[in-house]
Prior knowledge:
By secondary structure, the protein is an all-alpha fold. It has seven helices and no strands.
Amino acid sequence: xxxxxxxxxxxxxxxxxxxxxxxxxxxxxxxxxxxxxxxxxxxxxxxxxxxxxxxxxxxxxxxxxxxxxxxxxxxxxxxxxxxxxxxxxxxxxxxxxxxxxxxxxxxxxxxxxxxxxxxxxxxxxxxxxx
Length: 130
């Protein structure tokens, strides 16, 4: 099962990078939203998986323990990633919007501290178990 997920992830990334290279080399003039479709398909699968797992845990947990669920964190991270992709596509496709780079990167700036805290707490918990 894990091997299938890894192969699917690599395949999605390969398709995305091929489309990105074609667009950046000016071989095609496709819309930037079309280039990001493989990433959005992958994000949709992650979102469905996270939402399904959150609802399964909702039956067995109280509201206080629901926010400790790691699937809520996955849900937030994927939504921030999609928001970053949408703002990047808006900046690249529609020049007349005059979006600044720091406006485009706001979801990434929100996502990075959350990920740093999550990785740090996970590492410290594993060190305590040894």
